[in-house]
Structure formats: C-alpha cells, structure tokens
Design a protein that fits this description.
With 213 residues, the protein is mainly α. The chain has a domain of 107 residues: Alpha Horseshoe (Serine Threonine Protein Phosphatase 5, Tetratricopeptide repeat), CATH 1.25.40. Helix content is 81%, strand content 0%. The chain is built from twelve helices and no strands. The N and C termini lie far apart (102 Å).
Length: 213
Amino acid sequence: MIDLTEKAEDTIHRVVRLLEDGLFETAVEELRSFLKTNPDSIEGWYNLGYALTERGEYDDAIKAYDEALAIDNGIFALWFNKGTALYEHMDFQKARECYEKALEIDPKDPEAWNNLGNCFSRLANGKAAIEAYTRAVALKPDYAEAFYNKANAHFIEEEDERAIAYAEVAVQLDSRLAERVNQWINVSRNRLLSKRDQEEHEKRVRQHSRQKD
C-alpha cells in the first residue's frame, strides 16, 4: 500500500507537469485540494504561489508564498518568487525587500540582482539600480538583459557615455534588444554631443578671455 509521503510526491510531480504544460487552473485546483490535507507542504504552497502568479492572481499568490515562508523562511526561491509576484502587483517597495532577503541567502544570483535593480528603478533610485545591475553583470558577463537595464538606468541618470557603451554591449549579446535601445539611444547621443559642444564653447571662451588679459 502506497504511503502518504509517496502520494504527496506523486501529487507534486503531477502538478509540476501541469505547470510545465501551462495548465495553471487545473494545477491550482489540485494544489488547493492537496493543501487541505497537507498544509505543511512547502512544495505545495510554492507551486500554488507560482501557478497563481501565472494566472495574475497576485494577492493569493503572495499569501501562498507567505504560508511557505511561515514553514521555512530560509529558502531562496520563496523570497525570489514572492518578490516577482509583488513586482507584478506593482508593490515595488515590498518586492525590493523580498529580493534583498533572497540575496541574503544567495548573494551570487544574478537574476535576483537584476530584479532588485528593476525595483530600485521603479522606486526612482537610479544610483542603487545601477549598483544592482552592476552586480548582476559581474556575476554573469553575458547577461544581456541586465546590461540593457544598466544602460537604461544610466540614460535616465543622464550619464550618456555609459548609457551608450552598455547599450552597445547589450545589443552585441542579444541583437533583439536593438529595438528597445533605439527608443532612447539617439536622445543620449544628442545630449552627449550637445554637452561636448557646450564644453568646447566654454573652453574657447576661457581661452579668448585669457588672450585679452
């Protein structure tokens, strides 16, 4: 006779297959039924949170992750995925806190650093965003999306030389990013050109002033 643990494992495996096939509604139904008799299953709550996030039911997804975290708050994936649900729910401050918790557990995860940078960008903290994206690309030098995000953050901060340089790296790594880069890179180039023209003008004025003296 199969024991409860084996039954639980079979249910989780079946649910994972449903999630892989995109059958989120069925997965949610199975998980809610399963959790009535297995309320201490971290895997159950984790997968329910994931399925609900995919369905856009962010409040319930966050509650599911909280149930899992109440059982064990030392699991990277729980904090990471809760952060994702909160970000999608437009709660960027709480999402930031979750990604920071995740990074306390695993400070070498580049995606968590990238997502933390996105939170800081949404919270209008450009310097902190750039620092987070810098950590992401240091950990994963071929991380095109993080290079693009870093470039865009520099653009917003009007640090145009860096914005252009990192945008070029992003496009070299993933040519599909060219369309997104093209939405703003000419503004950055024009600002940089204008700044250089202004600097040259001021330099000539100073030289002319010295000659008169």
